[in-house]
Amino acid sequence: MNVPKFHVLKLKKALYGTKQAAQCWWLQLKTILHRIGFKSNGEDPSTYFFDSPEGQAMLWIHVDNGALAGSSEKIIDFILMELDKHLQIKWDAEITGLNCNLISDTSKEMDKAYLKRIGILLYIAQGTRPDISYAVNYLAWFSMGTNSTHWESIKHLIGYLRKTNNITLKIGAHEEPNDLKCYMDANWGGEGNRSTHGFLVLHGGNPIMWQSKLQATVALSTAQAEYIALSFAAKECIWLYNMCQDLLKAPSPQLLSDNKAEIGIAMSSVSRKQTRHLIREFNLINKLIISNKICLDWVNTQNQLADILTKSLGQLNVKKVLSGIIMT
Protein backbone atom coordinates (compact mmCIF):
# COMPACT_ATOMS: atom_id res chain seq x y z
CA MET A 1 0.00 0.00 0.00
CA ASN A 2 1.27 3.44 -0.91
CA VAL A 3 0.61 6.02 1.82
CA PRO A 4 0.39 9.64 0.67
CA LYS A 5 2.95 12.03 2.05
CA PHE A 6 2.07 13.55 5.46
CA HIS A 7 -0.64 10.88 6.00
CA VAL A 8 -0.79 8.02 8.54
CA LEU A 9 -2.80 4.82 8.80
CA LYS A 10 -5.21 4.20 11.65
CA LEU A 11 -5.43 0.61 12.86
CA LYS A 12 -8.90 -0.83 13.39
CA LYS A 13 -7.56 -3.21 16.04
CA ALA A 14 -4.31 -4.11 17.79
CA LEU A 15 -1.46 -5.36 15.63
CA TYR A 16 1.34 -7.63 16.88
CA GLY A 17 4.49 -5.65 17.60
CA THR A 18 2.87 -2.30 18.34
CA LYS A 19 3.30 -0.59 21.68
CA GLN A 20 -0.34 -1.09 22.63
CA ALA A 21 -0.53 -4.74 21.53
CA ALA A 22 0.37 -6.30 24.88
CA GLN A 23 -2.17 -4.20 26.79
CA CYS A 24 -4.90 -4.89 24.24
CA TRP A 25 -4.18 -8.62 24.37
CA TRP A 26 -4.33 -8.65 28.15
CA LEU A 27 -7.67 -6.80 28.26
CA GLN A 28 -9.13 -9.14 25.63
CA LEU A 29 -7.95 -12.25 27.50
CA LYS A 30 -9.35 -10.98 30.81
CA THR A 31 -12.73 -10.41 29.18
CA ILE A 32 -12.81 -13.93 27.75
CA LEU A 33 -11.79 -15.53 31.06
CA HIS A 34 -14.44 -13.60 32.97
CA ARG A 35 -17.09 -14.74 30.49
CA ILE A 36 -16.10 -18.36 31.02
CA GLY A 37 -16.35 -17.93 34.79
CA PHE A 38 -12.78 -17.34 35.95
CA LYS A 39 -12.03 -14.89 38.74
CA SER A 40 -8.66 -13.20 39.05
CA ASN A 41 -6.59 -13.45 42.20
CA GLY A 42 -6.26 -10.17 44.07
CA GLU A 43 -2.63 -10.79 44.99
CA ASP A 44 -1.51 -11.96 41.54
CA PRO A 45 -3.51 -10.66 38.53
CA SER A 46 -2.03 -13.36 36.29
CA THR A 47 -3.58 -16.15 38.38
CA TYR A 48 -7.23 -17.11 37.81
CA PHE A 49 -9.53 -19.49 39.66
CA PHE A 50 -12.58 -21.34 38.35
CA ASP A 51 -15.19 -22.85 40.67
CA SER A 52 -18.29 -24.76 39.62
CA PRO A 53 -20.35 -27.75 40.79
CA GLU A 54 -18.37 -29.92 38.34
CA GLY A 55 -15.03 -29.00 39.92
CA GLN A 56 -12.32 -26.40 40.40
CA ALA A 57 -9.49 -25.20 38.18
CA MET A 58 -6.55 -22.82 38.33
CA LEU A 59 -4.98 -20.95 35.43
CA TRP A 60 -1.62 -19.16 35.36
CA ILE A 61 -0.99 -16.69 32.55
CA HIS A 62 2.35 -15.40 31.21
CA VAL A 63 1.90 -13.25 28.08
CA ASP A 64 0.36 -15.75 25.62
CA ASN A 65 1.35 -18.89 27.53
CA GLY A 66 -0.49 -20.49 30.40
CA ALA A 67 -0.67 -23.47 32.70
CA LEU A 68 -4.01 -25.04 33.54
CA ALA A 69 -4.69 -27.43 36.41
CA GLY A 70 -8.07 -28.88 37.33
CA SER A 71 -9.68 -31.26 39.76
CA SER A 72 -10.82 -33.58 36.94
CA GLU A 73 -10.35 -34.19 33.24
CA LYS A 74 -13.99 -33.22 32.71
CA ILE A 75 -13.47 -29.68 34.02
CA ILE A 76 -10.25 -29.34 32.00
CA ASP A 77 -12.03 -30.39 28.80
CA PHE A 78 -14.86 -27.92 29.48
CA ILE A 79 -12.47 -24.97 29.93
CA LEU A 80 -10.47 -25.89 26.83
CA MET A 81 -13.66 -26.10 24.79
CA GLU A 82 -14.76 -22.64 25.99
CA LEU A 83 -11.36 -21.10 25.28
CA ASP A 84 -11.33 -22.65 21.83
CA LYS A 85 -14.51 -20.73 20.98
CA HIS A 86 -12.63 -17.43 21.29
CA LEU A 87 -8.95 -18.25 20.74
CA GLN A 88 -6.71 -20.52 18.74
CA ILE A 89 -5.08 -22.55 21.48
CA LYS A 90 -2.44 -25.26 21.52
CA TRP A 91 -2.86 -27.66 24.42
CA ASP A 92 -0.07 -29.81 25.84
CA ALA A 93 -1.08 -32.04 28.73
CA GLU A 94 2.48 -32.09 30.15
CA ILE A 95 4.24 -29.02 31.49
CA THR A 96 7.84 -28.54 30.40
CA GLY A 97 10.18 -25.61 30.89
CA LEU A 98 12.88 -24.13 28.72
CA ASN A 99 15.78 -26.56 28.09
CA CYS A 100 13.95 -29.19 30.12
CA ASN A 101 12.79 -32.52 28.73
CA LEU A 102 10.12 -34.35 30.69
CA ILE A 103 10.95 -38.02 31.11
CA SER A 104 9.13 -40.83 32.87
CA ASP A 105 12.31 -42.68 33.86
CA THR A 106 14.69 -40.65 36.06
CA SER A 107 17.24 -43.44 36.55
CA LYS A 108 19.56 -42.22 33.76
CA GLU A 109 19.63 -38.68 35.15
CA MET A 110 20.33 -40.05 38.63
CA ASP A 111 23.15 -42.17 37.23
CA LYS A 112 24.71 -39.08 35.60
CA ALA A 113 24.67 -37.19 38.90
CA TYR A 114 26.10 -40.24 40.70
CA LEU A 115 28.90 -40.60 38.13
CA LYS A 116 29.77 -36.92 38.49
CA ARG A 117 30.31 -37.34 42.23
CA ILE A 118 32.26 -40.56 41.70
CA GLY A 119 34.55 -38.69 39.30
CA ILE A 120 35.19 -35.94 41.86
CA LEU A 121 35.92 -38.48 44.59
CA LEU A 122 38.24 -40.46 42.30
CA TYR A 123 40.23 -37.29 41.62
CA ILE A 124 40.64 -36.74 45.36
CA ALA A 125 41.46 -40.40 46.07
CA GLN A 126 44.12 -40.61 43.37
CA GLY A 127 45.71 -37.30 44.30
CA THR A 128 45.96 -37.01 48.07
CA ARG A 129 43.62 -39.42 49.88
CA PRO A 130 44.54 -43.10 49.52
CA ASP A 131 42.34 -43.81 52.55
CA ILE A 132 39.16 -43.43 50.43
CA SER A 133 40.43 -45.30 47.35
CA TYR A 134 38.72 -48.57 48.24
CA ALA A 135 35.42 -46.89 49.12
CA VAL A 136 35.32 -44.93 45.86
CA ASN A 137 36.34 -47.99 43.84
CA TYR A 138 33.55 -50.00 45.49
CA LEU A 139 30.89 -47.33 44.94
CA ALA A 140 31.94 -46.96 41.30
CA TRP A 141 30.85 -50.57 40.79
CA PHE A 142 27.23 -49.39 41.15
CA SER A 143 27.43 -46.51 38.67
CA MET A 144 24.58 -47.93 36.59
CA GLY A 145 21.23 -48.42 38.29
CA THR A 146 21.88 -46.46 41.48
CA ASN A 147 19.41 -46.42 44.35
CA SER A 148 18.98 -44.66 47.69
CA THR A 149 21.49 -46.97 49.43
CA HIS A 150 24.27 -45.94 47.06
CA TRP A 151 23.43 -42.26 47.46
CA GLU A 152 23.53 -42.60 51.24
CA SER A 153 26.97 -44.20 50.93
CA ILE A 154 28.17 -41.32 48.76
CA LYS A 155 26.91 -38.81 51.33
CA HIS A 156 28.59 -40.77 54.13
CA LEU A 157 31.92 -40.72 52.26
CA ILE A 158 31.66 -36.99 51.60
CA GLY A 159 30.87 -36.50 55.28
CA TYR A 160 34.03 -38.45 56.19
CA LEU A 161 36.11 -36.16 53.96
CA ARG A 162 34.55 -33.11 55.56
CA LYS A 163 35.33 -34.35 59.07
CA THR A 164 38.90 -35.30 58.13
CA ASN A 165 39.76 -32.35 55.88
CA ASN A 166 42.77 -31.66 58.10
CA ILE A 167 44.45 -34.95 57.08
CA THR A 168 47.27 -34.39 54.61
CA LEU A 169 50.13 -36.35 53.09
CA LYS A 170 53.45 -35.61 54.77
CA ILE A 171 56.45 -35.70 52.43
CA GLY A 172 59.86 -35.47 54.09
CA ALA A 173 63.44 -36.77 54.26
CA HIS A 174 64.12 -40.14 55.92
CA GLU A 175 67.10 -42.34 56.74
CA GLU A 176 66.87 -44.29 53.46
CA PRO A 177 65.81 -41.69 50.89
CA ASN A 178 66.34 -43.90 47.83
CA ASP A 179 64.54 -47.12 48.76
CA LEU A 180 61.33 -48.27 47.08
CA LYS A 181 58.89 -50.25 49.19
CA CYS A 182 55.60 -51.59 47.94
CA TYR A 183 52.91 -52.92 50.26
CA MET A 184 50.36 -55.09 48.44
CA ASP A 185 47.27 -56.96 49.52
CA ALA A 186 44.13 -58.57 48.14
CA ASN A 187 40.67 -59.27 49.53
CA TRP A 188 39.45 -62.56 48.09
CA GLY A 189 35.90 -62.62 46.76
CA GLY A 190 33.45 -59.74 46.55
CA GLU A 191 31.05 -58.40 43.94
CA GLY A 192 30.60 -61.02 41.22
CA ASN A 193 33.17 -63.21 43.05
CA ARG A 194 35.88 -60.84 41.87
CA SER A 195 38.60 -59.92 44.34
CA THR A 196 39.89 -56.43 45.07
CA HIS A 197 43.62 -55.82 45.27
CA GLY A 198 45.59 -52.78 46.28
CA PHE A 199 49.18 -51.66 46.51
CA LEU A 200 50.96 -48.70 48.06
CA VAL A 201 54.43 -47.60 46.95
CA LEU A 202 56.69 -45.63 49.30
CA HIS A 203 59.83 -43.87 48.11
CA GLY A 204 62.09 -42.95 50.98
CA GLY A 205 59.12 -43.54 53.28
CA ASN A 206 56.90 -41.16 51.33
CA PRO A 207 53.75 -42.40 49.54
CA ILE A 208 54.08 -41.74 45.81
CA MET A 209 51.68 -44.24 44.21
CA TRP A 210 48.67 -46.28 45.28
CA GLN A 211 45.85 -48.18 43.65
CA SER A 212 42.68 -50.03 44.59
CA LYS A 213 41.33 -52.17 41.76
CA LEU A 214 38.70 -54.82 41.16
CA GLN A 215 40.40 -57.79 39.53
CA ALA A 216 39.19 -58.83 36.09
CA THR A 217 40.10 -62.49 36.70
CA VAL A 218 38.12 -64.58 39.19
CA ALA A 219 40.66 -65.88 41.71
CA LEU A 220 40.04 -69.39 43.02
CA SER A 221 41.84 -68.81 46.32
CA THR A 222 43.30 -66.08 48.50
CA ALA A 223 46.81 -66.96 47.29
CA GLN A 224 45.76 -66.53 43.66
CA ALA A 225 44.14 -63.16 44.40
CA GLU A 226 47.33 -62.09 46.17
CA TYR A 227 49.45 -63.34 43.27
CA ILE A 228 47.48 -61.26 40.77
CA ALA A 229 47.99 -58.27 43.06
CA LEU A 230 51.71 -59.04 43.11
CA SER A 231 51.92 -58.98 39.30
CA PHE A 232 50.23 -55.57 39.12
CA ALA A 233 52.41 -54.14 41.88
CA ALA A 234 55.62 -55.55 40.37
CA LYS A 235 54.96 -53.95 36.98
CA GLU A 236 54.45 -50.52 38.54
CA CYS A 237 57.49 -50.89 40.79
CA ILE A 238 59.75 -51.85 37.89
CA TRP A 239 58.61 -48.77 36.00
CA LEU A 240 59.28 -46.55 39.03
CA TYR A 241 62.64 -48.25 39.59
CA ASN A 242 63.72 -47.53 36.02
CA MET A 243 62.59 -43.92 36.41
CA CYS A 244 64.65 -43.53 39.57
CA GLN A 245 67.75 -45.02 37.96
CA ASP A 246 68.02 -42.02 35.65
CA LEU A 247 68.10 -39.69 38.66
CA LEU A 248 69.80 -41.69 41.41
CA LYS A 249 71.01 -45.18 42.17
CA ALA A 250 68.22 -46.96 44.03
CA PRO A 251 68.19 -50.53 45.36
CA SER A 252 65.79 -53.07 43.91
CA PRO A 253 62.16 -52.50 44.94
CA GLN A 254 61.05 -54.38 48.02
CA LEU A 255 57.56 -55.87 47.71
CA LEU A 256 55.85 -56.74 50.99
CA SER A 257 53.04 -59.30 51.26
CA ASP A 258 51.30 -60.87 54.25
CA ASN A 259 50.45 -64.11 52.39
CA LYS A 260 53.11 -66.81 52.76
CA ALA A 261 51.46 -69.10 50.19
CA GLU A 262 51.79 -66.40 47.56
CA ILE A 263 55.44 -65.84 48.45
CA GLY A 264 56.10 -69.58 48.23
CA ILE A 265 54.58 -69.74 44.73
CA ALA A 266 56.57 -66.73 43.59
CA MET A 267 59.88 -68.00 44.96
CA SER A 268 59.45 -71.43 43.33
CA SER A 269 60.78 -71.89 39.81
CA VAL A 270 58.22 -74.62 39.07
CA SER A 271 54.71 -73.81 37.89
CA ARG A 272 52.06 -75.37 40.09
CA LYS A 273 48.47 -76.41 39.51
CA GLN A 274 47.28 -73.30 41.32
CA THR A 275 49.03 -71.02 38.85
CA ARG A 276 48.67 -72.82 35.53
CA HIS A 277 46.01 -70.37 34.35
CA LEU A 278 48.25 -67.50 35.56
CA ILE A 279 51.30 -68.65 33.64
CA ARG A 280 52.15 -65.19 32.29
CA GLU A 281 52.00 -63.61 35.73
CA PHE A 282 54.00 -66.52 37.17
CA ASN A 283 56.77 -66.21 34.55
CA LEU A 284 56.96 -62.44 35.00
CA ILE A 285 57.34 -62.56 38.78
CA ASN A 286 59.69 -65.53 38.72
CA LYS A 287 62.06 -63.88 36.24
CA LEU A 288 62.03 -60.58 38.16
CA ILE A 289 62.96 -62.37 41.39
CA ILE A 290 65.70 -64.51 39.79
CA SER A 291 67.25 -61.46 38.12
CA ASN A 292 67.09 -59.52 41.42
CA LYS A 293 64.91 -56.87 39.84
CA ILE A 294 62.53 -57.13 42.80
CA CYS A 295 62.80 -58.42 46.36
CA LEU A 296 59.75 -60.19 47.81
CA ASP A 297 59.41 -60.30 51.62
CA TRP A 298 56.76 -61.17 54.19
CA VAL A 299 55.15 -58.57 56.43
CA ASN A 300 52.86 -59.12 59.38
CA THR A 301 49.18 -58.52 58.64
CA GLN A 302 49.07 -55.95 61.45
CA ASN A 303 51.68 -53.90 59.57
CA GLN A 304 50.19 -54.33 56.08
CA LEU A 305 49.58 -50.73 54.94
CA ALA A 306 47.81 -51.84 51.74
CA ASP A 307 45.01 -53.35 53.83
CA ILE A 308 43.11 -50.06 53.64
CA LEU A 309 43.01 -50.35 49.82
CA THR A 310 41.23 -53.72 49.78
CA LYS A 311 38.55 -53.61 52.44
CA SER A 312 36.67 -51.41 54.88
CA LEU A 313 38.55 -51.08 58.18
CA GLY A 314 37.49 -50.01 61.63
CA GLN A 315 38.35 -46.58 63.02
CA LEU A 316 41.36 -47.74 65.05
CA ASN A 317 42.85 -49.71 62.14
CA VAL A 318 42.34 -46.74 59.81
CA LYS A 319 44.26 -44.46 62.18
CA LYS A 320 47.06 -47.01 62.47
CA VAL A 321 47.40 -47.38 58.70
CA LEU A 322 47.24 -43.62 58.14
CA SER A 323 50.08 -43.09 60.60
CA GLY A 324 52.14 -45.65 58.65
CA ILE A 325 51.40 -43.86 55.38
CA ILE A 326 52.42 -40.58 57.05
CA MET A 327 48.99 -38.99 56.84
CA THR A 328 48.23 -36.74 59.80
UniProtKB/TrEMBL annotation:
From what organism does this protein derive?
Answer: Austropuccinia psidii MF-1
InterPro entries to which the protein is assigned, alphabetical: RVT_2
Q: Per its record, how is this protein called by name? A: Reverse transcriptase Ty1/copia-type domain-containing protein
Pinpoint the Reverse transcriptase Ty1/copia-type domain residues: 7-96
Give a single Pfam family match: RVT_2
